[in-house]
Amino acid sequence: MKNFNYYAPTQVVFGRDTEGQVGQLVKKYGGTKVLLHFGGQSAIKSGLLDTVEKSLQAEGIEYVKLGGVKPNPRLSLVRQGIEVCKAEGVDFILAVGGGSVIDSSKAISSGRFFEGDVWDLYLHKTHATKYLPIGCVLTIPAAGSEMSDGSVITNDEVDGWLKKDYCVNEFRCKFAIMNPVLTYTLPAWQTACGITDMMMHTMERYFSKDDDMEITDAIAEALLRTCMSEGHKVLENPTDYASRAQIMWAGSLAHNDLTGCGTSGDWATHCLEHELSGMFDVSHGAGLAAVWGSWARYTREENMPRFARFARNVMGCDTTGMTDLEAAEAGIQAMEAFFRSIGMPTNIHDLIGKEISDAEIEDMADKCSTGDTQTIGGLKVLKMADMINIYKMAR
Amino acid sequence: MKNFNYYAPTQVVFGRDTEGQVGQLVKKYGGTKVLLHFGGQSAIKSGLLDTVEKSLQAEGIEYVKLGGVKPNPRLSLVRQGIEVCKAEGVDFILAVGGGSVIDSSKAISSGRFFEGDVWDLYLHKTHATKYLPIGCVLTIPAAGSEMSDGSVITNDEVDGWLKKDYCVNEFRCKFAIMNPVLTYTLPAWQTACGITDMMMHTMERYFSKDDDMEITDAIAEALLRTCMSEGHKVLENPTDYASRAQIMWAGSLAHNDLTGCGTSGDWATHCLEHELSGMFDVSHGAGLAAVWGSWARYTREENMPRFARFARNVMGCDTTGMTDLEAAEAGIQAMEAFFRSIGMPTNIHDLIGKEISDAEIEDMADKCSTGDTQTIGGLKVLKMADMINIYKMAR
Questions:
Q1: What is the predicted ipTM?
Q2: β-strands A175-178, B134-138: how paired?
Q3: With an 8 Å Cβ cutoff, is B28 touching chain A?
Q4: What are the tens digits of pLDDT across the range A262-291?
Q5: Within 13 Å, how many C-alpha atoms sit on residue A124's CB side?
Q6: Would the pTM of this model clear 0.90, i.e. be above it?
Q7: Which residue is closest to A249 within chain B, CA to CA?
Q8: Under a CB-based contact definition with an 8 Å cutoff, are residues B212 and B263 in contact?
Q9: Among residues 253-272 of chain B, which lie with CB inside 8 Å of chain A?
Q10: For labelling, which of A229, A263, A367, B146 has a CA lying 20 to 30 Å from the CA of A316?
Q11: Which of left, alpha, beta for B263 (phi over 0: left; psi -120 to 50: alpha)?
Q12: How far is A355 from chain B (nearest CA, A)?
């Protein structure tokens, strides 16, 4: 068990009708002038934004609205948000939406007091020292951004776009309101992408070279099994409160570091996917499902017993009499079958709807490795040539 | 899944040699003058206290020492600690030890600025509004006090003693340093009491009338299985780092509310035990083991399928062809067998080494029900007469 730091200070307020507490919570955490940040029309149409505004008004909290966050949130809107915060004297950001809205809020938070270009933070050139506090009302269980320290932003100001992350503890939300009822109207596709994303957050931590963190493994396996069984239930009955609730809470636990305590993790699948969604603007969850199987087959020899354990304890495979390699393959196939059962692609063609070219693959690998200067992955360290191999296996 | 609040802001610093960071952590959380609170000689003899003092000195942090905390921590020492804090201008309490030292620190924290009698807080007569911040270096994994909001204090100023708890979010430690190596020297008995305590913290939340929190159940079951398998390993090999680490982290996760998200919980076994250790000054963990089986048999009809699930998913019983009642009984027997396998008593006679009298039982039930005016338990609401029945079943 590796040494670790675990820090998950977000106050989670979970359950029916909890969004009405948002004004009190903003007040509790010191907000007096709020940037109310959200995505498209759904928060308006559903009446959620109205409820949030009334709750803020009831506490005498001023606010300024900024909508328009898109999936794979864009740097250009972040810059706009920073200017609004400066001009209006905002002292708290309230994100109403999913991971994209929260990630955009985090970027704005980091840029508010930063003297330089906020994108330099995402290029890891420097650190900000002062941040605006953030709270959220979550509407899409998937990214886990409501409890995580990370934010992923897409730079839409450069050719071919560029997707980068920045992680600091100041990005952890002060509070996260989660009402499963708010997720009833999520389309099946988005629900499935979210389930894939949270499972991958757990699996990125699970697949490592380490083998001495039984408690973390056992919790990770419990989460993954729950995501699969409850995920099927939710897709069959989108207004099943109990199943929506399990999935929603699983999304937070999958990415608040609980499933990474004592492990070193991998994260290569996420890196490979960021290039896919950067280039083709596809859903993050779907992109993960499209490359995971190929990544797994390419890297599994680094810790075959762990893939065999995954097959047994997570996928429920009967591996009696199998070699570790056979068990690992059975587990990977079962995982891919699950992905397909919830409508996810398991190759790039099914993801982007066309054949990907060698040039596009090389371009992605070039970006992912920053011109063959950086590696990714913890289970197996991957260079640019490895990335090309995996993309080609997944094509 | 019931609505819930989850708030676990403690920064956990886990692993080898982490105690050397204590000075930096106290500084990070604003401490300049520390009450260094500890138990007996073991922290001195092991050299831990010396390491802690050097780390504080290296950061230029002043401190005043107060040792002498006993298991079932006493109100009289709490009062002494409060006076020391007032006299010395202490602004941070550092607990070095197990749950008793942390609970004593919490009581001192609540009494520092409180105008009235600190015991009134534990009698739930009133609330304190200002608290001293607390950090800890944990040496005994058991009580989970390092991440919990609770403190249990024994009033040694009254006849027959009285054990009461007080719970507020301000009691959550700012940081908790956990180095599994520091637990190598724990005697087998204390290790086993600790394992029982953390398992019971999980089981008190698990056994409820609710049946719609699959994710919480799955995590609880993972924790319980880990406690049993790693517990046996630790007792066989007390210096097995990996197993000590699982047990140590399990102790925190068992009581930071993770295993209670969405459930209503029970807690009757804890209430029944508090009277036992209040009257006979026995170890809390052993007291829990002594009464749990009787509590389970007395209350199981309130949710038999849950006891049957426990038998299958936690105790690994093959319940094929059994009725729920038979499965429940098999699970309870397996749990009692585990308790005995780690040296725990499963009845009051084995706990206190003598026959308990009817008068003593009636006295405990009277205290536990505050003179038949208060009930305990969530799975089955227990009145004074029920408490007497359970104590008699467990005698």
A1: 0.96
A2: unpaired
A3: no
A4: 999 999 999 999 999 889 989 999 999 999
A5: 8
A6: yes
A7: B215
A8: no
A9: 253, 258, 261-262
A10: A263
A11: beta
A12: 39
